[in-house]
Amino acid sequence: MSSLAVSHGYATLTGPREQNEDFCGVVAPAGAELDNKGLLAAIADGVATGGGGRQAAEYTVRGLLADYYATPDTWSVPRALDAVLTAINRWLLAQSTRRAASLATTLSALVLRGRRYVFAHVGDSRIYRLRSGELMQLTRDHTWEHPDLSHVLSRAVGLDTQLTVDYAEGELETGDVFLLATDGLWAPLKAERLQALLANEPDPLQASRLLVEAALASGGRDNVSAQVLRVDELPESNLDEALALQRDLPIPPPLAVGQHIDRFEVRAVLHDSRATRLYEVFDVATGQRYVLKTLKPGADADTLAFVIEEWLARRVHTRWAPAVLPLSVAERSALYYVMSHHVGDTLEAMLDSGRHFAVADTVSLGVQLTKGLGALHRLDILHRDIKPANLLLCDDGTLRILDFGVALNSSAVHDASTTEGAPGTPSYMAPELHAGEPATYASDIYAAGVALYRLLTRHYPYGEIEPFQRPHFGDPVPPTKFRQDIPAWLEAVLLKAVARDPARRFETAEEMLLALERGPQGELNVMRRTPVAERDPVRLWAGIAAASMLLNLLLAWLLMR
């Protein structure tokens, strides 16, 4: 099975300047890191004000190349790049203030991952793509349009407190050639010469050297830098190779207590659903207890979603979720994954057994739930099925979020939808999901609010919703209708979390967490009844029209007397 293969090279010359203020670099990892994060190349041209241009360019490129690979695999490429560049921009501004001299730089960065490319760009360095003999400029120069200011940057890293970066992406093709160039290269050579030089020299390193030498020979008066990358081979699909190999593993047959699968011995069947089965297993190599999850025979259509579920779950490193054992494909003879074992019961099982949740207990669980949800959202993971059945209260008092089967992440996009509408459990799905809109952080917060509401009241704020039902959402029922000992502040938290309008919910899980931790000291402005103008505008205007007609009739009658 093929994987991404890229040849690359770069060259930089000082030219007639006293100092070379350009800087470029590339990181080309291998294996899983190449699959997850891709290859990253960057080029920068430092702004020479006060002599800090070289430092700004080098710090920006080195910082980006190092810190990009430290971001979570679950983040999209633009989000990861933006987070790193925002931090670098703040550092450069702080250094400029301290030294009373500008540290700013252009930046053009390119990520090649799977079968796609993503670039980040600010300033007047450029990225070109040569495909099938035709050269295309992918970036736009950030300079002032006025003729006298045409060489003055309107954007640069370290120039303003608000860094605005251009991001774009596209599909890769085998044979694509990318050129990252500073203005000292593209200004004297122009597009036609760049195209000819790139097309006639297949070796990226030699092409880079020819380009910078040609720029100086053509009268270039600036530092000259070129970075060339050629796509030699692409993976067979957008899935990385490790995922594709894992997908080829067979679904194991039903396992009985005492049977072995690889190094694990089955001790008990923990859960049996429509498509999956969970076993308590014993690792004969280490003596540890784990939970093994696999698909049931016949669930082949769910294989891709199951593989991505493990990919996501393995990257959630928090106490609020089980830890996944890092098993390689070579260590498994069948399709399954293994996670840490925790003794306890789900909140749904506790409700079914008649457990009464006190207000203080529910607040404590809510604090843990929002901490866990916040950890997932910071990884850019939407759970999409928060409910008591997926919340495990362990014997050590820790609440853990289970089941990433329908979780969504921009770096591993898939849709494990049910046959109708978005995935999830209807009574915990936000109104906008029932209307066909995509899941957001707000819809996860809604589900968390419904879960806490049900722990306290054993009811749902909008009533129970059956599958395939088209519900009508009015105003949520205040939980104090079912239970009088719920304090006003907690009722306000729950009503805000389950608001029909996403804009009226908590913006983040951390905001909801803060409200739960503050308790009666916090003040929430919660709309308990939706105004008629919002709830039923047709009815409102019909009433106004009827009243107006009656008033006109009354006036007419008075005039006739």
Secondary structure elements and pairings:
Elements: E1 5-13, E2 22-27, H1 31-37, E3 39-45, H2 53-67, H3 77-99, E4 107-113, E5 116-122, E6 126-131, E7 134-137, E8 166-171, E9 177-181, H4 183-200, H5 204-217, E10 224-233, H6 241-247, E11 260-261, E12 264-272, E13 276-283, E14 289-295, H7 303-314, E15 336-340, E16 344-346, H8 347-352, H9 359-378, E17 381-382, E18 391-394, E19 399-401, E20 408-409, H10 431-434, H11 441-457, H12 488-497, H13 509-518, H14 532-535, H15 537-560
Antiparallel strand pairs: 1-10, 2-3, 3-4, 4-5, 5-8, 6-7, 6-9, 9-10, 11-12, 12-13, 13-14, 14-15, 16-18, 17-20, 18-19
Helix pairs in contact: 2-3, 4-5, 9-11, 9-13, 11-12
Concise description?
By secondary structure, this protein is an alpha+beta fold.
